[in-house]
Design a protein that fits this description.
Blueprint lengths: L12 E5 L4 H12 L3 E6 L2 H13 L5 E4 L5 H14 L5 E4 L14 H7 L4 E6 L12 H21 L4 E8 L21 H9 L12 H8 L10 E4 L12
Parallel strand pairs: 1-2, 1-4, 2-3, 4-5, 5-6, 6-7
Helix pairs in contact: 1-7
Length: 246
């Protein structure tokens, strides 16, 4: 096989949960550019319509669905609907989370195995908080740490079925949700948290959603067929860096 073809997602069906904006949408757009057919869920008809317009503007013919990922029966119905209308899911990205940023996996590995074709890719969106602690985010860190170990256990249990389950751990990404932390102060200085992140990041910047696109395509493609149970941190080097000496 030609090396670049290993990164192709041509003919694959990808379900990216919570991909109506932000990181999820960036990953879905990357998959579409690599040839995949995109399915996504969101919480309302309004957000679905806005997302479909955004995908269309980017040249992506996406399939949108309204589904509460906390509702197990609704998720089963979603998977069945996608299978009937689009095709069997090859790639699942667990990106959606509840309001406190504690991830809610909307599909068990068993559910996925029942509808996949003897192979499949699962990508869990983890976090640097899968490895680190920080004041005020204990519940989030506990959840993301648990998601890291769930990723490894899905690998352990379903690897023999040719299912690869890996995680992406974004660093601090510049999105609408983090915009208040990057606002300039009245005197023109950086927000204190913005200063903190820039000082702790060897890349000396916040990440962009586009920085996650290449890693996501890699983990969804045949190029990563022997990569399993791995968390790929896309953090500008924060986890490798102790910080500047005062």
């Amino acid at each position: 096989m030609d090396m670049m073809n290993k990164f192709s997602l041509e003919g694959k069906v990808a379900l990216v949960t919570g991909a109506s904006h932000g990181i999820g949408m960036a990953i879905a757009n990357a998959f579409a550019a690599a040839g995949a057919t995109i399915c996504f869920n969101c919480s309302s008809e309004g957000s679905k319509a806005r997302a479909l317009e955004a995908y269309k503007a980017n040249g992506v013919d996406a399939h949108g669905y309204v589904c509460d990922v906390c509702d197990e029966e609704a998720v089963k119905a979603l998977v069945a609907q996608i299978k009937e209308e689009v095709g069997i899911i090859d790639i699942l990205v667990n990106n959606a989370g509840i309001i406190k940023r504690i991830p809610m996996l909307e599909m068990s590995a068993e559910d996925f195995r029942q509808v996949e074709k003897g192979h499949g890719k699962i990508i869990n969106i983890c976090s640097m908080m899968s490895e680190l602690g920080r004041e005020t985010v204990s519940a989030y860190a506990a959840a993301k740490g648990g998601l890291k170990m769930l990723t490894r256990n899905i690998c352990s249990e379903y690897g023999e079925y040719n299912i690869q389950c890996n995680g992406i751990g974004p660093g601090y990404i510049a999105t609408s949700q983090t915009a208040p932390l990057r606002e300039r102060q009245p005197d023109g200085s950086r927000h204190p948290f913005d200063q903190f992140i820039i000082a702790k990041t060897p890349a000396a910047r916040w990440g962009e959603a586009e920085d996650l696109m290449g890693p996501a395509v890699f983990l969804a493609s045949d190029a990563s067929n022997f990569v399993n149970g791995h968390i790929l941190y896309v953090d500008g080097g924060i986890l490798a860096y102790i910080g500047k000496q005062p």
